[in-house]
Amino acid sequence: xxxxxxxxxxxxxxxxxxxxxxxxxxxxxxxxxxxxxxxxxxxxxxxxxxxxxxxxxxxxxxxxxxxxxxxxxxxxxxxxxxxxxxxxxxxxxxxxxxxxxxxxxxxxxxxxxxxxxxxxxxxxxxxxxxxxxxxxxxxxxxxxxxxxxxxxxxxxxxxxxxxxxxxxxxxxxxxxxxxxxxxxxxxxxxxxxxxxxxxxxxxxxxxxxxxxxxxxxxxxxxxxxxxxxxxxxxxxxxxxxxxxxxxxxxxxxxxxxxxxxxxxxxxxxxxxxxxxxxxxxxxxxxxxxxxxxxxxxxxxxxxxxxxxxxxxxxxxxxxxxxxxxxxxxxxxxxxxxxxxxxxxxxxxxxxxxxxxxxxxxxxxxxxxxxxxxxxxxxxxxxxxxxxxxxxxxxxxxxxxxxxxxxxxxxxxxxxxxxxxxxxxxxxxxxxxxxxxxxxxxxxxxxxxxxxxxxxxxxxxxxxxxxxxx
Length: 469
Fold this sequence. Notes:
The chain is mainly alpha-helical.
């Protein structure tokens, strides 16, 4: 807040006692905002008479984190209590436009963001409380339905928007307290996302989780599709919880409250400017992503060209190696032409010796051929016998067909109505008989051919036998 506040002309107290008193406060301008019952009360710091005591300075990080945890816990108490009381007074279902409900979600978002470890990206550092909320479905299986619903929402593009949608769905389900308790009890899982002195890692987180039980009496109904949860600015409206602590200074207190509200409006305006810069950066990121995709496509095209060039290089290398090899072979052939005359004489000697071996092999082959011819003659005789049996059976079928023909012709003479059909049948039978006669002639001819082959084989065998002897 101090970095965003406009400069003031009044001096700031610097005593150590003021430092001690500030451990339970939230600073706005030069006023102290402290818890007084159910309200945040404003008192001027100049009105406090203090004596210096040795205390820790504001620059101590542990002190600053403890102060932030206490402030966030007090704000959570006020927002939860105010939400419950206003909801019970209304006696109806709350929607997303209800101001105390909006402030409750803003306070919860600040509590979940407190002490988050920054994740480094190419644009800088990014803090999001969506990562811890995703762990809840591993601890409580019922929360898996909420996580799946958040991921299916089409309008959410950022982790912050998903975290806000998750909080709203958990409140509608009346399980927000149960989920937060389950998450806080697993410090070893939260240590991946939070610093050791963050609110979720300390006692204040457990207290807030216990306070959330009271919200189970509230009925809430939200329409997620119409809300722009990604670009909302989470600014706490302190005016809903402020009360003047100095009743004797009525007019001055009103002026102080207006000054504080002016300062709050200033902070909100700065947040709007920051939101606009964030949108511009997001547009730049989109443009960079598009240019990155174009560069990746160009890189892929360049890689393909490199691959084709490498393939052509390999092909050229293979062709050059083939040409060199062919030249070497030609040179070898020229060198071997002189030694061919000597090798021919040696080959002639080898051929004569090989000729003798061939004659002996031919004699052995003739003996084996004679044996094969004898086996072939036996098989031909067997085939002749089989064909003769087939010829006998075909002749028997021909006789049967002729008898059937005579019988049908006799029936055709006695039948006047079926003359045409029987004549056609008679013609078919005659065709079949002629076919059978042709096949019989062919079989007889093949039988004659087989007999001739057998005779020729016998003659060849008789000629081979005396040569062998």
